[in-house]
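Re: that backbone. Tokens:
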């Protein structure tokens, strides 16, 4: 069952996150990156495919520097409706904390196949555990690769890598590219005040 794991992890009487249903965009494939302050700050990278959002949690966030190979842990599929979700996940719930949209847009496979839809091509690449795509976001643009790390001992780790193209830069820090009025940054600030670090020995 698609989205069964997503629904099982969440109590929709408690959280404002959307309930899991499969749904497709009418036009081009969509992607979203959500900045999420949970037990740890991370960026959730989500690609629309087969009526859901295939999802990876990236601790350091995406980069436009081809030298950065960003660890991306594949997590459960999220519903397509999740692409517009922002706000607070209440304490005691899965992923409790603050979520904001960091980037969004459309994407397409780098290599087109005549007679096949973009969605079909991406699903095939996912099965082969090696995706090559072009992002058309506000922050993330150009060619990227997402490849599974073979023989990993734990979890489902992948690497998100920027290809060398004219959108590539030699320095990029996602944290330097957040909105000045970011609610996630504000949330991180309150957490530090509530839970001060232990005194230095
Ligand atoms: Mn998350």
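Recovered sequence:
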């Amino acid at each position: 069952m698609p989205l069964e794991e997503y629904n099982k992890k969440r109590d929709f009487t408690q959280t404002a996150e959307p309930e899991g249903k499969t749904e497709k965009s009418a036009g081009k494939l969509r992607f979203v990156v959500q900045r999420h302050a949970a037990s740890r700050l991370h960026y959730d990278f989500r690609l629309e495919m087969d009526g859901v959002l295939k999802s990876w949690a990236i601790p350091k966030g995406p980069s436009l520097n081809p030298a950065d190979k960003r660890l991306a842990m594949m997590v459960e599929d999220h519903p397509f409706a999740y692409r517009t979700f922002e706000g607070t996940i209440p304490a005691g719930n899965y992923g409790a904390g603050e979520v904001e949209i960091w980037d969004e847009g459309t994407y397409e496979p780098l290599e087109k196949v005549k007679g096949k839809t973009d969605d079909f091509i991406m699903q095939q690449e996912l099965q082969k555990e090696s995706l090559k795509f072009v992002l058309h976001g506000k922050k993330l643009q150009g060619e990227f690769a997402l490849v599974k790390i073979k023989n990993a001992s734990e979890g489902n780790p992948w690497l998100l890598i920027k290809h060398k193209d004219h959108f590539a830069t030699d320095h990029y820090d996602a944290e330097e590219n957040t909105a000045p009025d970011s609610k996630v940054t504000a949330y991180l600030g309150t957490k530090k005040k509530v839970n001060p670090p232990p005194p230095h020995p």
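The chain has a mean pLDDT of 94. The first strand starts at residue 30 and ends at 37.
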